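Sanity check record (used in CI):
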Amino acid sequence: MSQSQSKFRFLVAESETPEARQGRRESVGRSSGETYLGILREIAPGSACDRIMPADAGAELPTGATLSGYDAVFLSGSPLHLYEETPETHRTVAFMRAVFASGTPAFGSCAGLQVATVAAGGSVRPNARGREAAFARRITLTDVGREHPLLAGRPAAYDAPAIHTDEVEALPSGAVLLAGNRVTAVQAAEIRFDGGVFWGVQYHPEIGLDEVAGALRRQADGMIEAGLARSQDDVEAYARQVDDLHREPHRRDLAWRLGLDEQVTDGHLRRTELRNFIESLARLGREGLLAVGK
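Expected output for Glutamine amidotransferase domain-containing protein:
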């Protein structure tokens, strides 16, 4: 990363509930926001990173900070269902609207994409084609996506870590669809609203394969209910293979067994979208990011 990139100031917005946050820590040792903090510091060494929990009552920015004072905001995954009218969803959507209004560019994964969608006037629903678990398969770029800097370096079709039970039903007016697959029509999108811009994906470029395995174990009952596994033992056997591949990413036998290639097994390639967003921000600046695609 360049010297200019090392001076970024980032804000990570983690909208997990306290219970989900604790469960994730017990499972893989870190919350979704803590995963983001670690990856951002790896991609842009020297960056200053703060974290906020917008779903929590009374959540506030650090003393003296403003949204417009950050170079970018990153929205993590979350178990929130954005179509439910709860204090947590209301607070999270209100936060994202404030991010748009501040003009600060934003990036989000999984629920982060859904939060930005609802904040800008689109809609979210339960997955119409059922749970997408462990990996999203054959994500395919749209014509616009092939030219968009968010997906630079991705092949025409690729897999990525993903586990979600909700999806974007309708993108807001003016949004651009960048990628989708057979299970989830909106896998990547650009959203512009109220002077701000958001680049996001339904999958998880930020997580490691150990976190995929942890998510499978935490959601084993849902996997069985969805017909993706017949027993807890089935889920554990699959999760153990994913864990093994995390520890030994060059194991071709494991990659073959799981049907994965380097787009997932190579950590550098797996984080393509995050790196592209940060590099685009460094190259173009805030105003330049707003001008992409216009």
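Residues 210-258 form one domain. If this sentence no longer matches the regenerated tokens, the check is flagged for review.
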